[in-house]
Write a structure and sequence with these properties.
By secondary structure, the chain is an alpha+beta fold. It is built from 14 helices and 16 strands. The protein folds into three domains: 94 residues, no CATH class; 284 residues, outer membrane lipoprotein receptor (LolB), chain A; 92 residues. Strand 4 and strand 5 form a beta hairpin.
């Protein structure tokens, strides 16, 4: 089907005496193919072909001669019609050219994305809102990666926040990470500034008490830890998994070498345009809108060039010599049904939105796919950002020590409970042999159990017995309550010790 936009552009270029070869070269550079270009030229040729006139009709005309100055003469009428048609064509050319410029017809997506990354690199602040949805529904024999409350066939992760890189020596960021895995969810807020990371769990996942006891007690409590080593190198680079370069490799490169790697990436074609849409306004910015696919050959070529460069500069370093990111290219074959869309500002040349949809084959021998959707919205480029450290926070080492201490206390409490539970069985054996519970509190078995309980940290041990009943209680370590068992089968936590041969109601 003939595209009116390309016809309008060809008309406009021909009117400026641009050659057909020059027009063809420009159109190819903007993504048009030979078939579309040839079809448009052919359509224009038919449109301007002259209509033959019959000389016999003119010669045998019986009409009266006319004055060339007559306002009603055929020549005068022809001039008016020609003027109107010419004006109409000029308007069409101007309108078509304006629309072509507006829609980005003459913009190359690879060069535009290169500009966008250069622009983003030069920014000092910005906001981001990224959601990744993962659907495992097609995978029949999926291994459960998470504890049972999070064993969902569908997961959604949202990362939303802002950053400020205005001070090269003090990168700042604030991010809220939300994980939804029906029926449970988790939310964490992370701030980074002054070479320290602060993290707080704002929403604890439900149903994990069996795996992480008292996890809800850590809600809204900030912990902190440095993210740089003593020599100033970044301990962990979150972008490393996506670049194919590990933090260990990155930290061995000089600033000039890192810049060279960036130059290699900026000259690489990672994506290719498959469709051009009308511009849309995203976040208040009129933006070019394209659909794209992965340029798999371009990606493979980039990985080869990175390998060659790092191996070359690392001749005397075994880890740099062994560096080989090309194995990642094999994984590209497992990426199926890829479709991407991107919105780049017409004026600011910054990326404002990206949408990715694709499937991944966990097992190349099967057709089952993990379906992945990623939506990223960028905003507030170069706008002021306020990120401050939380007023109260606990060092990570302190938290670990506290957690280990709590784990030890829980272990002691479990040991105390086990000893008291064992006393119930011993009491029944005592009753069977003596027909009474009286005297059980002085038995050898009870004395041995008391010693074990006190060695585990239990205090204020109490044992009361009469002929038909008994009750035993003790206080847990660290003022964490009491535990009581009695002859009626009770075994529970209480707020006081037993004062009789029955456990307290509370």
């Amino acid at each position: 089907m003939i595209n009116e936009q390309i016809i309008a552009y060809i008309r406009q270029q021909l009117s400026q005496n641009v050659s057909r070869e020059g027009i063809t070269t420009n159109l190819k550079g903007s993504g048009w193919v030979d078939e579309d270009i040839t079809e448009a030229f052919n359509a224009l040729s038919l449109a301007v072909a002259p209509t033959p006139t019959s000389s016999s009709t003119i010669n045998n005309s019986t009409e009266q001669p006319f004055s060339p100055l007559s306002s009603t003469s055929p020549i005068s009428k022809g001039k008016k019609i020609f003027g109107i048609v010419g004006l109409f064509l000029l308007l069409c050319l101007a309108g078509g050219g304006a629309y072509a410029y507006y829609s980005g017809m003459f913009v190359s997506l690879p060069s535009l994305t290169t500009q966008a990354f250069e622009k983003a690199r030069a920014t000092t602040s910005g906001g981001y809102d990224v959601t990744a949805s993962v659907d495992f529904s097609e995978i029949k024999d999926m291994i459960n990666l998470f504890p049972s409350p999070l064993n969902s066939k569908k997961l959604s992760v949202t990362v939303k926040g802002s950053y400020d890189s205005g001070d090269p020596d003090n990168f700042k960021s604030s991010t809220v990470i939300s994980l939804d895995a029906d029926p449970s969810s988790l939310a964490i807020e992370v701030r980074a500034l002054d070479d320290v990371v602060y993290a707080s769990m704002t929403k604890a996942p439900s149903g994990l008490d069996l795996f992480l006891p008292n996890i809800s007690s850590y809600e809204n409590k900030w912990i902190s830890f440095p993210y740089k080593s003593k020599d100033g190198e970044v301990v962990s680079n979150p972008l490393a998994p996506f670049s194919g370069i590990s933090p260990g490799i990155i930290n061995k490169l000089t600033s000039e070498q890192k810049e060279q790697i960036y130059e290699l990436s900026s000259k690489t074609s990672f994506i290719k345009m498959i469709e051009r849409f009308s511009p849309e306004t995203i976040g208040g910015e009129s933006s070019y809108h394209f659909a794209f696919d992965l340029d798999r050959e371009g990606i493979r070529s980039y990985l080869e060039s990175i390998k060659k460069y790092i191996n070359e500069i690392g001749k005397n370093d075994s880890s740099l010599t062994a560096f080989d990111p090309t194995s990642f290219s094999k994984e590209l074959d497992n990426v199926k049904d890829f479709k991407g869309e991107i919105w780049i500002g017409r004026s600011d040349k910054l990326i404002h939105k990206i949408v990715l949809n694709f499937g991944v084959l966990p097992d190349p021998a099967k057709t089952e796919q993990v379906k992945i959707t990623v939506v990223a919205i960028m905003s507030d480029w170069n706008e002021p950002v306020s990120i401050i450290a939380p007023a109260e926070h606990m060092n990570l080492q302190e938290l670990i020590a506290k957690a280990l201490g709590e784990a030890r206390e829980k272990g002691k409490e479990a040991e105390i409970k086990a000893n008291l539970s064992a006393m119930r069985a011993q009491a029944e054996l005592f009753y069977d042999s003596t027909s009474t519970y009286k005297g059980f509190c002085l038995s050898k078995e009870l004395i041995n159990a008391r010693t074990s309980i006190e060695n585990a940290g239990g205090t204020e041990f109490v044992c009361k017995n009469i002929m038909e009943a008994y009750a035993i209680g003790t206080k847990f370590p660290q003022d964490s309550g009491y535990w009581c068992v009695d002859s009626t089968g009770v075994s529970r936590s209480t707020t006081t010790l037993p004062s009789s041969t029955a456990c307290p109601l509370k």
